[in-house]
Amino acid sequence: MTKYAVTLRALETGDMGFIEHLYATSRAFEMSHSGWPADEIQRFLSQQFNFQHAYYQQHYPAADFCVIEAGGQPIGRLYLNWGSARLNIIDIALLPEFQGQGIGTDLIHQQLYRADQLGLAVELFVENYNPAQRLYTRAGFEITDQSGVYLRMRREAAKPAARIA
């Protein structure tokens, strides 16, 4: 249980500045080791954000692109692609000050519960160095493939409980 009550709402055009900032915070540690000047890092991250956003829009046109809010303020994003056989968790990210407080865990568990109710497997990609990998393993995900630094993970739908006759 988290101390924050969070809500999800659809991504809007006016959210682009926030999600670009969120993307930059998710890459801050990596960029701090680049040795690049700050303006070069900013340009690179802006370009990479735009590439990623365009890719998601093109490859997941029917996805739920959601902003995570706490107290009416945006604190993260959750992108989900619900299919007939599986749910793809495209991305989940939180501002650094909201990480490690159970928000992401709660949101992932909510989506897993919904997927189980629909009989859907769940798939995602995660960097092999990302600490969230432990959360996914605890939630029943298994590594099914590796491509570069990304692990493909899958969790089968939970089996319905046997009925007592």
Features:
7-stranded mixed β-sheet, 5 helices, alpha+beta, 165 residues
Report on this model:
The structure is a single chain. The protein is 37% helix and 30% strand. With 165 residues, it is α+β, with helices and mostly antiparallel strands. It has one domain: Gcn5-related N-acetyltransferase (GNAT) (Aminopeptidase, 3-Layer(aba) Sandwich), CATH 3.40.630. Strands 1-2-3-4-5-7-6 form a seven-stranded mixed sheet, with helices on both faces. The radius of gyration is 17 Å and the shape is globular. The termini are far apart. The mean pLDDT is 92.
Looking at the structure, the CATH topology is Aminopeptidase
Domain module tally: 1
Oligomer: single chain
Total DSSP E strands: 7
CATH superfamily: Gcn5-related N-acetyltransferase (GNAT)
* Helical proportion, percent range: 25-40%
- Give the mean pLDDT: 92
Q: Count up the helices.
A: 5
Low-pLDDT ranges: none
The portion of residues forming beta strands comes to 25-35%
Which architecture does the CATH hierarchy give at level 2?
Answer: 3-Layer(aba) Sandwich
State the distance separating the first and last CA atoms.
35 Å
SS-based class: alpha+beta
Q: In CATH, what is the class?
A: Alpha Beta
Specify Rg, calculated over alpha carbons: 17 Å
The main sheet comes to: 7 strands, mixed
Helix and strand arrangement:
Blueprint (H helix, E strand, L loop, with lengths): L5 E5 L5 H11 L1 H5 L5 H22 L4 E7 L2 E10 L3 E9 L8 H16 L2 E7 L4 H7 L3 E6 L2 E6 L10
Parallel strand pairs: 4-5
Antiparallel strand pairs: 1-2, 2-3, 3-4, 5-7, 6-7
